[in-house]
């Protein structure tokens, strides 16, 4: 375990495109996975799954010890996630605070993602319009033939 920590310190993983705490609220697991992917650079790992599982068990045991040392209390971050706006006070202000907090957690798309999504929508609209135009033309011919 100590050997692995020393290797990790020596390598200094790159942490590009790793979402910050407010940018991605789905949990610490996603942040860890993103940092692993960002630092791997497509290279295969020499660490086997059994070693990783053993390290995960050790980390879980250490976390359980820390929590029991605190008297079973949740961390400040966990308490903040579990608690919503306070029920007392002005309901409109509570709503605005909760809305602002939710907007801080939204993962906003960048310019490239917006352009791709817009192109997909416009392409689908063009295809649907062409299909409906052909269907209308065919239906009009059938009705004209019957009349």
Automatic annotation (TrEMBL):
Record's InterPro entries? SecE_bac, SecE_sf, Translocase_SecE/Sec61-g
Location, primary (coarse class): membrane
Residue spans of biased composition, Acidic residues class: 41-60
Q: Which GO terms describe its molecular function?
A: protein transmembrane transporter activity
**Keyword set for this entry?**
Cell membrane, Membrane, Protein transport, Translocation, Transmembrane, Transmembrane helix, Transport
Where in or outside the cell? Cell membrane; Membrane
Chain's role = Essential subunit of the Sec protein translocation channel SecYEG. Clamps together the 2 halves of SecY. May contact the channel plug during translocation.
Can you say what this protein is called? Protein translocase subunit SecE
What is the organism field in this record? Capillimicrobium parvum
Its lineage opens with: Bacteria, Bacillati, Actinomycetota, Thermoleophilia, Solirubrobacterales
């Amino acid at each position: 375990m100590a050997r692995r920590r020393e290797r990790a310190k020596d390598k200094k993983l790159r942490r590009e495109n790793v979402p910050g705490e407010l940018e991605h609220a789905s949990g610490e697991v996603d942040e860890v996975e993103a940092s692993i992917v960002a630092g791997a650079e497509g290279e295969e790992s020499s660490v086997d799954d059994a070693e990783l599982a053993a390290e995960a068990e050790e980390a879980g045991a250490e976390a359980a010890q820390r929590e029991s040392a605190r008297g079973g209390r949740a961390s400040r971050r966990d308490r903040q996630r579990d608690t919503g706006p306070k029920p007392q006070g002005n309901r409109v202000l509570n709503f605005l605070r909760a809305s602002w907090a939710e907007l801080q957690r939204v993962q906003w798309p960048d310019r490239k993602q917006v352009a791709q999504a817009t192109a997909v929508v416009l392409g689908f609209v063009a295809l649907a319009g062409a299909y409906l135009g052909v269907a209308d033309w065919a239906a009009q011919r059938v009705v004209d033939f019957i009349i």
